[in-house]
Structures are given as C-alpha cells and as structure tokens.
Amino acid sequence: MLTLLAPRVHCRQVGLRLARLCQGLTLALAIAGPAAAQSYPDHPIKWIVPFAPGGGGDTTARLVSREAEKLVGQPFVIDNRPGAATILGMQALLAAPPDGYTVFSGNDSLATNLYLLDKVPYKLEDVVGISVISKSPLALVTRPDFPAKDVNALMQQIKASNGKLNYGSWGIGSTSHLAMETMLDRTGASATHVPFSGSAPAALALIGGQIDMMFIDVGTGLQHIKTGKIKLFAISTKERNPAFPDVPTLGEVTLPGFDMYSWNGLWVRKGTPAAAVQKLTLAVQKVLSIPDFRKDQIERGNVPWGSTPQELDQLLHDNAVAAKELIEKRKIRLQ
Asked: What is the pTM of this model?
C-alpha cells in the first residue's frame, strides 16, 4: 500500500479554535493523496504511437488499448507521431506531465537510437516501463526464385557471392537490419543493404525480385509466405513459430543461440505516480492473458508477452548493450 506523508501545517501562535482548524486541514491533506490515487484515471489517457496509422505497431496499440480501456474505466486516445525512428513520439511523451495520462508504445528503437545517432534527445532513465506488449519473430526469406533449397545452401551461396547479393530491411538500424548484420557477422559473409521505409514495401521489392533476401516480421510476411510469393528458410527466435511449426530456427540448423526479434512495449514518464503505473500494468497484463486476444495476436504473427515493469526495463537495457556492440562493430550509422 502506498503511504503518503501529510504536508506539515504550522499551527503555532494561534488560538485553540485555529489550532483545531489546522489539525483538520492536516488530516484532510493526508487523506487526499490516497483518494486521488484511487480515482485514477478520471479522464481519457493519451496513447502516443510513434508509427504511421495502419502499420503493425499502430494496429497492436489500437487492439490493446481498446481492451485495456474497459479495465481502467477511461478511453485511450491514440495519437500517432511517426518519424525520426520513434524520436518524435518520445519527445511528445517527455513534453507531457508525468501524471499517468500520457503513455507511449515504442519498440527496441529506443535502445538502438542511442548508438545510431550522434545526439538523442532522451535517456533511457527518462521513462518508466509499464509492460512488454508482444514480440514479433522474424523470418529469413528470399525472392521466390532463389536457387537455394535449405538454410545451409543459402548460407553457402551468400558467402560465395562475395557481397554481390543484397538484402532489404525496414530501415537503417531496424531489427530486420541488425538481424541480418548479426547473421553475416557470425558467418563471415557480406551482402549489400537496401533499406526501405517499412516492411511492406520491402516485401513488395522482394516479391518483385529487386532484392534477394531479408528478415521480415512474421506478421507482414505471413500471407506472402503461404501463397509462395516469397521463400521461407528459417525463424529468427529460439522457439519455432506457431504459424510455421515445421520451419526450423536458425539456432537449430546453423547458428546456435541465435535469438532476434522485434518487440514493443508501453512506457510513461519518470515520476509518474506508482499507483498509475500499477493500474496500467495490471490492465495490459490482463488484456494479454485473454485467450481470444492471444489467439488473434498469434494469428497476426505476434507473440503476446505481458511483463512486469522491471522485466521491460531489463529488456530495454539488454537491447542497448547488444545494439551498442553490434552497431559499433559493423559501423552502422543513421544520418
């Protein structure tokens, strides 16, 4: 239980009646804190989404917020702030008061931006985690006519090409980019990076043969894979993906321990009341435990998570450490 200390009210050198009045005021102030915490939220909450409407991150935020508002008793108002690798959205969060009425759903870019850019207008310590919402496994895919028939053959052809093959991603420093750089680094191979503005346009370029391969999020690639428009070789996480249970992971067949995925979480500003953080966390966790909601997310290629704030903070820290090492080693910069 949160204990609030009552402000000290000076009652010296006053008459008995005024002293009693001061004592009553002190008691009222002591009670007001817990009462205010219990009333949260008493008006709509802004949910900042640093992605364009219609994308995967935006869709997930809308689905989670729609269910969560039933639990907190107030609507969430989606505020799309795309651009600058989620930095515009983060700036909007930090410009709002830390009162629990503005939340921000971002992803691993919060960590990678620190090492991709010369200057970033925030620190990881500026935010407090609510919960990891979900993780999105990646699929290693190629254009449909790529001659390799399995992962090992694909690796051999990449190495033999001496950098002549290219690969797409949904942006410099994105998870799809860093996953491929990790694979190339561990195999001693090279390939040319072709960044796109999102996973959907990268997928279209792959289907059309403009690029040779990429790590695509399972949600975006799902239908293209099932219809044979792109060719699936492996999954990027330690666990096989429920959508493709017969497809091996990279760790199983060629790169032990390989475990990369995109993920998204929910944050508030540092200084937000603990009662607000707790209520938001419990709401998100409950939404992500709803069987029908989980089933829908899995069918979309996501794996619902629902963590504690501490687990989200640790995940963000671990991502920052891993990103720093890879970005510096591979000399990746976002201009």
From this structure: 0.81
